[in-house]
Design a protein that fits this description.
Mean pLDDT: 91
Shape: elongated
Helix content: 40-55%
Order of helices and strands: HEHEHEHHE
Oligomer: single chain
């Protein structure tokens, strides 16, 4: 999917389909929206677990964690080309808006 993100976003735009992605690259390639875990924050947590394991903790004793920080990205250029009016309240919630 990642290798073809520009093709997928382009096809959705050409077909006038609003598209939501589970990764940033889809929106940066021209998709409409992304909502998902903040990967930078997730990688920080991975480093914490690696540190614990290297210090002798058993991986089976470590808790399983779900992401706690999420991001919302909106591509206004795509919204305008699709004729979609994004409500100001949704724009205010977005972590990043691509114009």
């Amino acid at each position: 999917m990642n290798a073809n993100e520009k093709r997928i976003a382009g096809f959705a735009l050409k077909s006038r389909l609003p598209s939501m992605y589970g990764y940033r690259g889809g929106v940066e390639a021209g998709g409409l929206m992304f909502y998902g875990a903040d990967l930078v924050d997730s990688y920080r947590r991975v480093a914490y677990f690696v540190d614990r394991i290297l210090k002798g903790a058993k991986p089976s004793d470590l808790p399983v964690e779900q992401p706690t920080k999420f991001e919302l990205l909106i591509n206004l250029k795509t919204a305008k080309s699709l004729g979609i009016a994004v409500p100001p309240t949704l724009l205010a919630l977005a972590d990043e808006v691509i114009e």
